Amino acid sequence: IISEWMPPHAVCAGIIISFDATAFAPSDSSPPLPDGTWGNWSKNVGGVQVAARDSRALYWDGVT
């Protein structure tokens, strides 16, 4: 898809696979939906490590 729809310099940094149609509803902005920090499984919020990815999906690293 990247090679067909994007310019030659575009990179697929990762793939998210989810079979739950409600997991990534564009109209729902509440956690645990991706907030742009889901490259890692967790993030630090106020000194506490919390999940950064929705557990209903698989996350595959892309090829750069």
Describe the protein's architecture and organization.
This protein is mainly beta and 64 residues long. 6% of the residues lie in helices and 31% in strands. The chain has 1 helix and 4 strands. It has one helix at residues 2-5, and strands spanning 12-17, 42-45, 48-51, 58-63. The strands form 2 sheets. The protein has a two-stranded antiparallel ribbon with strand order 1-4. Strands 2-3 form a two-stranded antiparallel sheet. Strand 2 and strand 3 (48-51) form a beta hairpin. The longest helix is centred in the first third of the chain and has 4 residues, at 2-5. The chain starts with a helix and ends with a strand. 2% of the residues are buried.
| Global outline | globular
Low-confidence stretches: none
Into which percent range does the helicity of residues fall?
under 10%
Mean pLDDT figure: 78
Q: What is the terminal-to-terminal distance?
A: 15 Å
Strand line-up in the sheet with most strands = 1-4
* Total number of beta strands: 4
Order of helices and strands: HEEEE
Largest sheet, described in full?
2 strands, antiparallel
Q: What is the CA-atom radius of gyration, in angstroms?
A: 14 Å
